Description:
2 helices, globular, CATH 2.40.50.140, 2 domains, six-stranded mixed β-sheet, alpha+beta
Amino acid sequence: MLQKSKLILTFLSLSLASYAFSNVNGANQDSTTIIGEYEGHEDYGYNFIATRDDDDSEYTITFQKVNDDVLAQFNLQSDELIGMKFKITYKVKLVVTKDENGFDDENEIYTITALEKM
Length: 118
């Protein structure tokens, strides 16, 4: 019976470790929703100005990717949307690559999954 308990405990530990690892690598992403004002598009992404809940300070959030269905609905390349307020739903994925020295380079990729004009 003790051997069976150790086997079950080992299985549960490995399952939990696997789940934690998949979350770190973006496999199980949760969506986040904020309100932001569109500031325009640059080579590196789409910029929005949002306000922090805790101290009302403003910050810029840049999205490197936008789902195709969102781009079909909103032409974020156009200057017409600059200054408009949106409800933005997005996911963040951690991407780990190796640099030229073989060290891990971690980048967060922000992807807009839904956009709603306010």
